[in-house]
Design goal:
The structure holds two protein chains of two kinds.
Chain A lengths: L5 H8 L12 E7 L4 E9 L5 E9 L2 H14 L4 H5 L3 H7 L8 H19 L12 E3 L4 E2 H11 L4 H8 L9 H11 L1 H6 L13 H22 L3 E8 L2 E7 L12 H12 L5 E4 L1 H5 L7
Parallel strand pairs in A: 7-8
Antiparallel strand pairs in A: 1-2, 2-3, 4-5, 6-7
Helix pairs in contact in A: 1-2, 2-5, 4-5, 5-7, 6-8, 10-11
Chain B lengths: L3 E2 L10 H7 L1 H4 L10 H4 L1 H16 L6 E4 L2 H15 L5 E5 L4 H12 L3 E5 L9 H7 L4 E5 L13 H10 L3 E5 L18 E5 L10 E5 L25 H39 L3 E3 L10 E6 L4 H10 L2 E2 L1 E2 L2 H4 L6 H5 L4 H4 L2 E5 L6 H21 L6
Parallel strand pairs in B: 1-11, 3-4, 3-5, 5-6, 6-7
Antiparallel strand pairs in B: 2-8, 7-8, 9-10, 10-13, 12-13
Helix pairs in contact in B: 1-9, 4-9, 5-6, 9-14, 10-14
The chains are: A alpha+beta, B alpha/beta.
Chain lengths: 293, 385
């Protein structure tokens, strides 16, 4: 069971400002049924350009509904310039905090507000468009959006990014890319973050090398492939040549755009030895070995 | 506030009679069955009795019963113990809808170089036995397939599957934690080699379970140490738990008719009313072959966690396959394997009943649930006014 604050529960059980405004000045719609949450936010301005009325409709869990409800309260009587300054952290703080895994609800609130303001500024024409390049194809999250949650919330791990904007929480194929983004944006923070995988040091015996290769395949490579419905098998190790076979890869996956071989090679070089190179065993890949779709 | 407990596939109330049996075993009769003195030694008789009670319910010999710490340990022991006993075979066959206590163990073996085949299910959650038959080969060490699914209640034709598998000389294990006490079993007439059950799913205590091992089945022990359970499971016996489980099995044997008539009628009434009163709702799973106590319904356009919290306000306990309840972002692996669309999976609710539920509780839930669904749909941007 989630630890929700009393304020959040109050806004979930008694949501304020539910519904739609006739002839609104701005509408913002974010999320989708497939993603598991979606928010439609509308506002009406008074003659002084302040938000006179705001209403919402939300599909999602308790925190998504409560977040939408407080957002409509927070923006009332604000000018659009003032409203545009609201961050996802402000929304979460207003609720007395959100569970880490639910932070994406506050980000959805802020996104809907932004979309509604843009919609107003474009004279009611503009619908929200994705800015930047889509990194997470499962949840349709762009690099711009990821960068923003990293900066605004001072995030240092992929897991946190997933909690805040869902990116990386589906198939997991974009996690490596998110990690790179964190490293680029937060170079100082990342150094202080604990290193979870101990890198090998010193010279390895052949047996140690093969074990470490198997371990790296198991822990670093297979989970990402499996999330795509694919798999990898370690066939053989001859000197520095590592022979692997790929099974049932998902064609749409982000990783597939890079050559699989390069990804595996990079991981093995990172965790085992710089001298390793990878060869794909095409022959055994022809055999339908594993029936996981 | 009163509690209406419709989450019996998660855990169940301990029957009063079970608690009564267990009560003296903490402060009065607390001896160790392995001790030489009468005070401890007399506990051996209590364990023997419990073993007989379990065997009676399962229709097997008492010597085929190993007591464990629960369903997860039984599953681990069955899979790891079988593979260790035949190291030359390197393939495991299971399904995509197994409980994590099986699926995670199999995937760990895949990391160790085993081939793991996860059989698909159709839209009703049913297996294709031809596909299973095709997958069994000389390298196959074990087939492990659950008896009934914890989320949807769908029952697999386990006797048929066991026959098919064992005819090919392969060991067959089934995770039956959701089945024991709900539908009658007779293992002496079945080809099942290994079967897991858990005490707390049939009104027994938590922390105790059973692995049934057919006589002659080769199994390496998982827990090493003392000589308990004939050397097949080391560790001082959880005497109160074992005695409680024995009593729970005895009660289950008596109540199994009631389970199949009274509980099923209540479930059917609840299910029919909810599907009728809530537009855009759908049943998940095979309506024909299902546990008598389980129903899994998707309410479109709304989200499961929100429904659960609203139900909770009325004291109604249920569970959901929605992503938000688990902390992951993806909905239930079972519903996804069945091809239930994401939109419906997010709004899925499981009600699982027991013999302690009443018609009045069902009526109250039938009254409240459609209100909750309507209330949440009023909030949903996907529902037109």
């Amino acid at each position: 069971m989630w630890e929700y604050t009393d304020k959040l529960k109050d806004h979930f059980f008694n949501p304020r400002n539910v519904g739609e405004i006739e002839d609104p000045d701005g509408i913002g719609e974010v999320g989708s049924l497939a993603c598991g949450d979606a928010l439609k936010l509308m506002f009406k301005l008074d003659e002084n350009g302040k938000i006179k009325d705001a209403k919402f409709k939300t599909f999602g869990c308790a925190s998504a509904i409560a977040t939408s409800s407080v957002l409509t309260e927070m923006i009332k009587d604000l000018t659009l310039d003032e409203a545009a300054k609201i961050t996802n952290k402000d929304i979460a703080d207003y609720l007395g905090g959100l569970p880490e895994q639910k932070m994406h609800c506050s980000v959805m609130g802020r996104e809907a507000l932004e979309a509604a303001i843009e919609n107003y500024q474009s004279g009611g024409k503009k619908k929200r468009e994705l800015e930047g390049n889509v990194i997470c194809t499962c949840f349709g999250v762009t690099d711009k959006e990821i960068e923003r949650v990293i900066r605004e919330n001072n995030l240092t791990t992929v897991e946190e990014v997933t909690n805040y904007c869902k990116a990386g929480g589906g198939c997991g194929g974009c996690q490596a890319e998110i990690e790179k983004m964190i490293e680029k944006i937060q170079p100082d923070e990342i150094k202080q973050a604990p290193v979870t995988v101990a890198r090998r040091a010193g010279k390895l015996t052949n047996i140690q090398k093969i074990q470490l290769i198997q371990q790296t395949v198991n822990e670093q490579i297979r989970p990402a492939l499996r999330a795509h419905g694919g798999n990898i098998e370690l066939i053989d190790v001859e000197g520095n040549k590592v022979v692997v076979a790929f099974r049932g890869m998902c064609a749409q996956c982000r990783l597939a755009e890079l050559t699989m071989k390069d990804v595996v090679e990079a991981k093995l070089r990172e965790f085992v030895s710089e001298e390793l190179f990878v060869e794909e065993d095409k022959e055994s890949a022809q055999q339908p070995h594993n029936h996981r779709e | 506030m009163r509690t209406i407990y419709f989450d019996n596939n998660a855990t169940t109330k301990v029957a009063e009679q079970v608690l009564e049996e267990m009560r003296p075993l903490f402060c009065e009769l607390y001896g160790n069955p392995s001790s030489m003195h009468t005070f401890g030694g007399q506990m051996g008789r209590r364990i023997r009795q419990a073993r007989e009670q379990v065997a009676d319910l399962l229709g097997c010999e008492p010597s085929e019963i190993i007591f464990t710490s629960g369903g997860t340990e039984s599953d681990n022991t069955a899979i790891k113990g079988t593979l260790a006993a035949m190291p030359h075979r390197r393939k495991i066959i299971t399904t995509r809808v197994e409980h994590p206590a099986v699926l995670t163990v199999c995937r760990e073996f895949e990391n160790q170089g085993y081939t793991v085949v996860e059989l698909a299910v159709d839209k009703q959650g049913r297996l294709d036995l031809a596909q299973l038959a095709e997958q069994i080969d000389d390298d196959t060490a074990l087939v492990t397939i659950m008896y009934a699914n914890n989320e949807t209640g769908v029952i697999f034709p386990i006797d048929k599957i066991a026959e098919l598998v064992t005819d090919r000389g392969v060991i067959f294990h089934t995770d039956a934690v959701q089945v024991v006490g709900k539908i009658p079993l007779n293992l002496s007439k079945s080809n099942i080699d290994l079967l897991s059950l858990s005490g707390h799913k049939l009104h027994g205590p938590k922390g105790v379970g059973v692995l049934y091992v057919r006589k002659g089945t080769r199994l390496s022990p998982f827990m090493l140490g003392g000589h308990q359970e004939a050397g097949r499971r080391a560790g001082t016996e959880n005497v109160p738990g074992i005695v409680g489980l024995g009593k729970a099995c005895e009660l289950a044997a008596k109540n199994i008719e009631q389970e199949n008539s009274k509980v099923k009628n209540l479930r059917d009434k609840l299910e029919r009313a909810l599907l009728e009163k809530c537009p855009d709702s759908r049943l998940n799973g095979d309506k024909e072959n299902r546990l008598p106590n389980t129903t899994n319904i998707s309410f479109e356009y709304i989200e499961g966690e929100a429904i659960l919290l609203m139900l909770d306000k009325y004291g109604i306990c249920a569970s959901s396959g929605s992503a938000c309840t688990s902390g992951s972002l993806e909905p239930s692996h079972v519903l996804r394997a069945m091809g239930v669309p994401f939109t419906a999976a997010h709004g899925s609710i499981r009600f699982s009943l027991s013999r302690y539920n009443t018609e009045e509780q069902v009526d109250y839930t039938i009254e409240k649930t459609p209100q909750i669904v309507n209330q949440l749909r009023k909030l949903s941007p996907f529902v037109a006014k």
